[in-house]
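Hi V.,

Quick status before I head out on leave. The structure for the redesign project is tokenized and pasted below; the design run finished overnight.
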């Protein structure tokens, strides 16, 4: 994790790192690599990147969105349902090594390398908007400050004292928190459960109703609201289960225990 944090400090100095065109391709290849290796353990993740021609961009994006949502829904539902049918609530966080088997070693090493490479890029994709937001606000608040606004370009790096200080501090903080939490899967499960309904269901449904002017009380409106409420109940149940797992983990919690 320390090495991961060091790498992120380096990459964080590259402005708009999340906009690099080949980043999504690398992430997709890495996802396919470790997902394919874990297929005998029904651990599947598919990501796709489509470069659409400008004239038909809207149609291509709509088609890609429908295809990606349908694909991920089918695969994740299969993984969840079949995984629970096979292992029940004893399913480990790591389906590859959770049962005490660590062979073949080289195959597991390939999986871990793919995951690390994927997460290196994913970290920047999520953090770069935060970096940009804070730096824009700081530049607006203190436009004459050399500490904030003065910049030195060295290849792809845009170096400034403020960026180096604040981004490095942010990465160090997140790395410290990651090292402090040994029950990674439980925390991720809780965050996923809490964010699923508002980000994946509620807001998209409400935006669709607003854009398409779906009449209140109509059959379509009732179906969409039923879907939203059903997913809310699922999120609440998943969050409750994740909270129970976190509480169990805290009972034997030892900081920095791995």
């Amino acid at each position: 994790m320390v090495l991961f944090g060091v790498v992120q400090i380096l990459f964080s100095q590259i402005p708009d790192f999340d906009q690099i065109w080949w980043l999504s391709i690398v992430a997709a290849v890495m996802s396919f690599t470790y997902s394919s290796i874990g297929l005998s353990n029904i651990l599947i993740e598919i990501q796709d990147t489509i470069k659409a021609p400008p004239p038909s961009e809207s149609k291509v994006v709509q088609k890609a969105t429908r295809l990606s949502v349908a694909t991920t829904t089918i695969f994740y539902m299969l993984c969840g349902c079949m995984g629970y049918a096979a292992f029940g609530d004893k399913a480990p966080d790591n389906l590859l090594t959770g049962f005490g088997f660590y062979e073949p070693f080289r195959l597991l090493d390939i999986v871990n390398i793919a995951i690390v490479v994927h997460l290196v890029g994913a970290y920047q994709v999520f953090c770069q908007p935060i970096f940009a937001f804070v730096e824009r606000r700081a530049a607006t608040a203190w436009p004459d400050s050399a500490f904030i606004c003065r910049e030195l370009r060295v290849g792809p790096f845009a170096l400034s004292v403020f960026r180096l200080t604040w981004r490095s501090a942010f990465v160090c903080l997140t790395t410290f928190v990651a090292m402090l939490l040994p029950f990674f899967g439980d925390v991720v499960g809780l965050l996923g459960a809490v964010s699923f309904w508002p980000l994946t269901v509620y807001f998209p449904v409400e935006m669709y109703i607003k854009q398409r002017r779906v009449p209140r009380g109509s059959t379509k409106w009732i179906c969409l609201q039923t879907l939203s409420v059903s997913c809310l109940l699922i999120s609440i149940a998943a969050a409750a289960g994740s909270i129970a797992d976190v509480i169990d983990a805290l009972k034997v919690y030892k900081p920095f225990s791995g």
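Above is the designed sequence. Residues 41-52 have pLDDT under 50 and may be disordered.

G. will cover questions while I'm gone.

Best,
W.
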